[in-house]
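Hello again, I could really use a second opinion on something today. I've been staring at a protein lately and its backbone has me curious. You're getting the sequence in one-letter code plus the fold written as tokens. I'd be grateful if you could look everything over and explain what you see. No rush at all, and the record is pasted right below:
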Amino acid sequence: MKHMDDLNRRNEPDGEGDADGRDGQAGAGGRDGQAGAGGEVAGLVLAAGGGRRLGGRPKALLTHRGRPLVEHAVAVLRAAGCTRVHVVVGARAADVRRLARLEGCVLVDNPRWEEGMGSSLRAGLDSLAGTGARAVLVSLVDQPGIGSEAATRVRAAFRDETSLVSAAYEGVRGHPVLFGSAHWAGVAASAAGDRGARAYLRAHQDAVTLVECGDVARAYDIDTEADLGHLE
């Protein structure tokens, strides 16, 4: 299990698509997404990694339960109540669009995905500007052991734009993580390389609400060939 500081060491992204890097927005977010907590808390999947330690196989396209892994990650956030879900894509973005069923999602291209997770997190947060979302629930595509129960618990801890919430596993920060919109600029400013939100969370650790999820989720990562055994 990796420390939540990993929102941060992992997932890397790429790009292509519309000029503004977004598409597939049918049925999610915007003004209609502001009605109710589902619209207030958007979902964000970081799914741009190139899978360097997996022989260059993008994690988004790994097969899990007969479908690309990115579909599973999106379904988890939707089951947790996120009506707007943004997905940051990068490595083999065209194939992700072609092979994965991501209807209703906003696909966000990160042409700088090879720089690390930080660039994907920045791209994802930037894509939420103007959507009316008051917070974002961030997950990583390569953690299929973290399902909707954990995501629902973290999302339920949302209070307002200042909320800062993290799943915990035996008291240790993990994923998913919820950032109220008041934190987005600070998170983006500190996200660099593979650090993601690590520095920001450390600097604001007293403000982080930890939600224990170890009884309903397994926080393993699909990083290496040996980890592929976790996929179903």
In short: Residues 133 and 190 are 21 Å apart (CA to CA).
